Amino acid sequence: MLTLGSNIKYLKGIGEKRAETLGRLGVSTVEDILRYYPRSYLDRTAVRNIGSLLPDENVCVSGQVITAPQTVRISGGRTRTKLRIADDTGVMDIIFFNQKYAAGNLKLYESYVFYGKVTGDLIRREMINPQYAPGAKAGEFLGIVPVYPLSAGVSQKLVSGAVKQALSACADLVEETLPEEVRKKFDLPQVGLALRQIHFPENFDAAQNARRRMAFEELFVLTMGLVLIKNRRDKKGGRRLRAVEMAPFMKALPYELTGAQHRCLADAIGDMTSGRLMNRLIQGDVGSGKTAVAAACAYFIGKNGGQCAYMAPTEILAEQHYVNLSPLLEKLGIKCALLTGGMKAAARREAERLAESGEAALIIGTHALISQKVSFNDLALVITDEQHRFGVGQRAALAEKGQDPHILVMSATPIPRTLALIMYGDLDVSILDELPPGRQAVKTYAVDESFRDRINRFIDKVINKGRQVFIVCPAVEEAEIEGLKSAQEHAAELQQNIFPHLRVGLVHGRMKSAEKEAAMGAFAAGELDILVATTVIEVGVDVPNATLMVVENADRFGLSQLHQLRGRVGRGEHESYCVLFKGAGDENAMARLKALERTNDGFAIAEEDLKQRGPGDFFGSRQHGLPQLTAADLTMDVRLLSQAQEAAEDFIKGGENQPGYAALKRRVDALFSTNSSFN
Ligand code: ADP
Ligand code: MG
Q1: Please, where are the H alpha helices in 46-118?
Q2: For a pocket test of ligand 1, which of 249, 251, 253, 255 has the largest count of ligand atoms closer than 8 A to its C-beta?
Q3: pLDDT < 50: residue spans in the chain
Q4: Which of 165, 610, 634, 656 qualifies as a FRET site for 420, CA 20 to 30 Å off?
Q5: Ligand 1 within 6 A of 290 CB?
Q6: CA contacts within 13 A on the Cβ side of 532
Q7: Residue ranges making up the domain that contains 558
Q8: Strand, coil or helix: what is 363?
Q9: What is the rounded CA–CA span in Å between residue 459 and residue 7?
Q10: Is residue 640 assigned to a domain?
Q11: What's the CA-to-centroid distance between 484 and ligand 2, angstroms?
């Protein structure tokens, strides 16, 4: 007897070997395969007249074979089998490459149904390597056909066959986890029905409805998990810090905080003085002034006698924070230390000592702060900058070094709303939605190679005015990828041939930390006119005198990343510019880049970026530490997510003893068990 927990090897046609292959797709039980949803569907619902077909359509046709299949050898040891079919409206050639057996299957004067893409032209229509079935079996062949995500060694037929068996044996055994009121309220089908319809839908509406239900369930469970984490933490409580006179800090700052900075700071201090544990995200576009808020929090912690660890994603950024903050804070009696992986052993040991003894109240560093050797005397606050680059696990690992320290997360890349709600669903959020005064939008131009001379003259002009220029290249060294400008080559070319009268510097990720620092330092000090760089400068680097950002091969970057790069200029009082060289990309690439000419709104850009590239690429990797979603799609309508959230929050209020709670809690545990750092 098959049950939901049965190993898939017991399904007909699977066996040990294929079960192993499916295992690699995360499918090992009957329930797994029920929840292994199609990626898309083939529309084999309607049979079309051959005479009506246009090139490039995917269609079904029904026809009689009117010329016997003939197989010939072609180059490379391949074969081509050709036959002609006809219906009442026209004829079409059917061509198979390397499918000699098709010739044996398809008999002269018999009728078949075919599915495939129409090629050729209106006079001579063709279909290459179509799927087909004898006319007598058209009933089975026609319909909506699921297309599963596959890996080598597994065929569509194998998966859909297995799903069919699993559905007929077990679809009704799947526990209904969504409470009935919720299903009624949001018009969601029952789980067994939804599973049948997501795999083998009656029509496309049913498929969409089924997917909506499964996505809703997933988001409901995810939200429930996040809310439970948050509740558990709130119950535990956090260290209550005392209010601190902030005026000395404010006086020492070279500027007034913006209203938004004040609000975010008040949120954070409110948390830390409340007796609850702070878990707060400060989200703000590039240049919104997150560092000052972090510094104010560090001051607050220092005056409370505790320590603050401030983790940045790159050495350059950690160094820059240190260089900017230590003069300000040390004057106010807050001792600072810098700790990065690239430091000399002696300097590093000294930083470790300052952290361990408690002498330093603010320890700024990279993920080196997480290293085993580092310990703190009394870690009261952990700040992570540019959080999306750290896994959730890294945030947790640093927090382990104290006794439930408060946590403040700073995210510079505005992430789309759906994603934020999910990724940071266990955090409270403050938004820095105001740029410091006097900022102008960076004028942006997406251009092609024909603008090269003009842009070179523009670079010269900008530098003549006493300003500085960043030029970003996608590669470090020559010819890593055909057609990409490398920072090394481009810097040499500019210095020798284009701008011999200017001072050109170079910085990239493969340089030693000291070299990087020297180059960045020289640029910041105005000793270089042009800094050619890779994306190491993407985050945080602050040189207010730089007013022009040129990006080579801009089509190679995501929109959010370009927006981030553009944020390196426009940080001072001068009018600033960003030039995006399209590179080898096509007209679509140009259209994509033009979006940046139109808007400076990081959130709008992030939404666009997510739509274009999907969530995986948006983060550059799967390192974001989210449970993996299968039915829900992060580019989806944010409405489904807010409905699921609303329903889950309501449900939790009903308490642990209500019917269905235990079943849902099991699903929460299952979803979150794939990612232990959530617990
Ligand atoms: P981000 O939010 O991108 O980390 P930063 O903290 O690096 O932004 O701040 C960007 C720039 O704005 C820095 O040069 C900083 O000194 C300046 N800045 C921050 N807050 C203010 C303010 N309230 N008034 C004027 N300048 C500010
Ligand atoms: Mg920053």
Answers
A1: 100-105
A2: 255
A3: 619-624, 675-679
A4: 656
A5: yes
A6: 23
A7: 443-599
A8: strand
A9: 65
A10: no
A11: 28
